[in-house]
Write a sequence for this structure.
């Protein structure tokens, strides 16, 4: 047994020695110049790499690459000019401060892919979305036409014909093979363990050419942690912890900030269905929107504030909805994400100086299309509520020629618009969130008719009995000719 132990030890020692030697020699040729040449031969960019760090102390764990830049391709890249002969760095659409990759090679001997860390630090990305749905980064990842000053051999007629033949052969094999089902993690014969995969201190700028909006994602920290997946034992090894923190600012066509959301998100994700091994279509996140987040000029609020005639006719002035509204405290809530659809699983209230916004459970937005359907309630500022309700009372007083108690009449007719002595507007917004359809959740027809002068028709209808029961209303009716 001892000899067997020595033999096994010698085997693993030999493997370890081979890996160390291979990685030490790798450090001699994996240089910034080498990586730039490989990148520019593969994709349609001009690249820059500041430094590559491989030392004897981390050869068994990984590699660090600093100062990565990917820019639109130019003559320098087409000619294949060596990196050390280039006079300046390109201005990149994609820039990475550092890529830090640490892998446990020894874990592969136990059929486990163990990644201790894959982190992109301080990435800077500038993205423009075209009206047709395309973007300015797509062209960067195409096959370059010129490499080292000559036509790319990969695009020669012979190479393209060979590639086409290979694709046709692959298609024939797929057609003759029995139909395969959807991807299942159970088909992967290796367990996956990862300590940390993510982005730290990222900044992404997205320009929407169709709408003129700009979306800035700053201080982006995206972390997938403690990844533990084993297709042969999903009941015990089927976990990913997700953290997402970012400041998301939306700048309108007028170059003014329309909204800023300071987000902290975390969730414990079960990535695969235990029974089938298929990708889990639903993920639940705990989201915290931080104090000082704000909304200004939300299209649905603009509609409520002045574009719904029934409110204006009723004398409800909600001008503060058009003002900047800052969140007064942190608000936490749960959402479910599935196929681009974000659904609220509870009913959070967002308190601001101007109003408190309540979102009803089941409200959703589809991030890929901007379609949404949300039921909300807006509890207006207390002082402004008093002014609006006083204005209503005055209109009722004028309509009833001062007879009866206008406040009692108002409360009977529009009591469903008052909550905790504040004006409460329930509404539904749906369609494209940038230009939504907005509907009130209460009927104001009775009040509108009353203050508009059609008092007789209202009182002859369903409101008559209710009005007669209000003290003083009988005198008001007589004064109106009833």
């Amino acid at each position: 047994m001892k000899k067997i132990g020595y033999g096994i030890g010698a085997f693993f020692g030999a493997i370890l020695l081979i890996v160390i030697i291979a990685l030490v020699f790798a450090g001699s040729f994996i240089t910034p110049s080498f990586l730039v040449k490989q990148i520019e031969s593969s994709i349609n960019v001009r690249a820059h790499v500041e430094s590559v760090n491989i030392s004897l102390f981390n050869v068994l764990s990984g590699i660090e690459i600093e100062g990565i830049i990917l820019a639109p391709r130019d003559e320098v890249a087409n000619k294949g000019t060596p990196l050390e002969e280039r006079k300046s760095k390109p201005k990149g659409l994609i820039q990475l401060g550092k890529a830090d990759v640490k892998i446990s090679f020894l874990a592969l001997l136990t059929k486990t892919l163990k990644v201790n860390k894959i982190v992109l630090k301080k990435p800077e990305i500038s993205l423009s979305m075209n009206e047709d749905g395309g973007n300015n980064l797509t062209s960067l990842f195409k096959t370059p036409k010129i490499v080292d000053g000559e036509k790319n051999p990969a695009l020669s007629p012979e190479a393209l014909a060979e590639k086409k033949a290979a694709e046709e052969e692959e298609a024939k094999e797929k057609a003759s093979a029995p139909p395969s089902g959807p991807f299942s993690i159970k088909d992967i014969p290796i367990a996956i363990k990862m300590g940390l995969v993510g982005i730290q201190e990222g900044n992404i700028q997205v320009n929407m050419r169709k709408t003129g909006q700009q979306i800035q994602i700053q201080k982006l920290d995206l972390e997938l942690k403690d990844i533990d997946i084993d297709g042969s034992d999903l009941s015990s090894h089927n976990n990913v912890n997700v953290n997402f923190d970012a400041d998301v600012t939306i700048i309108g066509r007028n170059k003014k900030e329309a909204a800023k959301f300071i987000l902290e998100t975390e969730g414990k994700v079960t990535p695969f269905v235990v029974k089938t091994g298929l990708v889990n279509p639903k993920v639940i996140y705990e989201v915290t929107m931080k104090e000082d987040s704000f909304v200004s000029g939300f299209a649905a609020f603009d509609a409520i504030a002045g574009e719904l005639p029934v409110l204006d006719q009723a004398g409800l002035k909600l001008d503060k909805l058009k003002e900047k509204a800052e969140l007064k405290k942190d608000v936490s809530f749960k959402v479910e994400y599935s196929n681009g659809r974000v659904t609220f699983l509870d009913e959070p209230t967002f308190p601001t100086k101007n109003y408190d916004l309540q979102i009803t459970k089941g409200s959703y937005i589809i991030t890929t299309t901007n379609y949404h359907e949300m039921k909300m309630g807006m509890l207006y500022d207390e002082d402004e509520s008093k002014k609006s309700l006083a204005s209503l009372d005055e209109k009722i007083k004028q309509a009833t020629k001062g007879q009866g108690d206008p406040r009692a009449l108002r409360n009977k007719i529009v009591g469903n618009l008052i909550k905790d002595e504040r004006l409460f507007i329930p509404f539904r917004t749906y369609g494209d969130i940038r230009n939504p359809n907005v509907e009130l959740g209460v009927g104001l027809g009775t009040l509108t008719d009353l203050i508009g002068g059609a008092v007789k028709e209202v009182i002859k209808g369903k409101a008559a009995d209710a009005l007669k029961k209000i003290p003083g209303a009988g005198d008001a009716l007589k004064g109106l000719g009833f």
